[in-house]
């Protein structure tokens, strides 16, 4: 569970911290969407998630669980029941190449100073990967101890397993890490660490938006120029959304599916909602089931 929570931090950053000014506010706001039409014999559902949050803020609405109950398959970004994926999660935070060997003495000194704000130092983090550093941002942004952190996907997964649902993943850990590496090299991650306070504020805003099911605001908050430029957005959101949208039809064709993905993946010109609509599916926000 500890490794899953750590992975959740990285996933949270890969799917919850990307923002720009809102354009053409979309009134179709919901954390649950029904997918029908285009030859489907039974509706499928897409749920926008918030990967990790404090227990005090944590809630899974009844309609989410009802949509999962109606579905034959539970499909996550990563299949946490796959032993190979779990091994990959355990390995991704460590590296054989020390951080200090990748930096000049001046850069190493600067990073050590930055890490002090996160309650650690370069000596302790020297064998960490860029993803290990990246996860520190979310750990600091969460206003509660790790013992009070809940994972949205893990709660859904436990329910799916209890009800003997088939479980699949839309991508591999390696795919997700490649996306993060493409978007943020070591120096870019260090630049993000410098903005810890801004992330704390952004995190609070997105929690509030998620509770209101305002997925449009979450998407908007995700694309702040300080946090994500156009190239990074392509790697973290657009390319992954397009890959998933290519896989989802075949999954839904076989049996009804419940897809759980970070809320920021739903909206926008290259969001899951619009991509599936362009393939001929009918998608509508669910108010109740």
TrEMBL record:
Record carries keyword Kinase: no
Compartments, as annotated in UniProt: Membrane
Keyword flag Translocase: no
InterPro entries reported for this sequence: TIKI1/2-like, TraB/PrgY/GumN_fam
CDD domains reported in the protein's UniProt record: Tiki
Superkingdom of the organism of origin: Bacteria
Membrane topology note: Single-pass type I membrane protein
Protein's name in the database: Uncharacterized protein YbaP (TraB family)
Taxonomy of the source species: Bacteria, Pseudomonadati, Bacteroidota, Flavobacteriia, Flavobacteriales
């Amino acid at each position: 569970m500890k490794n899953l929570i750590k992975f959740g931090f990285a996933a949270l950053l890969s799917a919850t911290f990307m923002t720009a000014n809102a354009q053409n506010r979309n009134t179709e706001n919901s954390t649950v969407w029904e997918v029908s039409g285009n030859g489907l014999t039974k509706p499928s559902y897409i749920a926008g998630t918030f990967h990790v949050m404090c227990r005090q803020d944590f809630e899974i609405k009844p309609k989410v669980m009802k949509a999962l109950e109606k579905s034959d398959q539970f499909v996550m970004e990563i299949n946490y029941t796959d032993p190979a994926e779990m091994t990959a999660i355990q390995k991704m935070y460590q590296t054989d190449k020390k951080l200090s060997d990748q930096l000049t003495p001046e850069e190493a000194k600067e990073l050590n100073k930055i890490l002090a704000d996160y309650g650690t130092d370069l000596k302790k983090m020297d064998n960490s990967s860029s993803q290990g550093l990246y996860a520190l941002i979310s750990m600091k942004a969460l206003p509660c101890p790790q013992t009070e952190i809940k994972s949205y996907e893990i709660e859904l997964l436990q329910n799916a397993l209890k009800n003997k649902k088939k479980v699949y993943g839309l991508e591999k850990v390696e795919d997700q890490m490649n996306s993060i590496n493409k978007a943020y090299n070591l120096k870019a991650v260090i630049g993000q660490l410098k903005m810890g306070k801004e992330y704390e504020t952004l995190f609070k805003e997105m929690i509030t938006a998620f509770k209101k099911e305002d997925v449009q605001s979450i998407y908007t908050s995700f694309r702040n120029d300080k946090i994500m430029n156009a190239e990074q957005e392509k790697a973290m959101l657009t390319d992954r959304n397009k890959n998933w949208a290519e896989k989802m039809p075949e999954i839904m064709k076989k049996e009804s599916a419940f897809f759980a993905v970070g809320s920021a993946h739903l909206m926008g010109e290259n969001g899951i909602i619009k991509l599936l609509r362009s393939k001929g599916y009918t998608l509508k926000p669910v108010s109740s089931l």
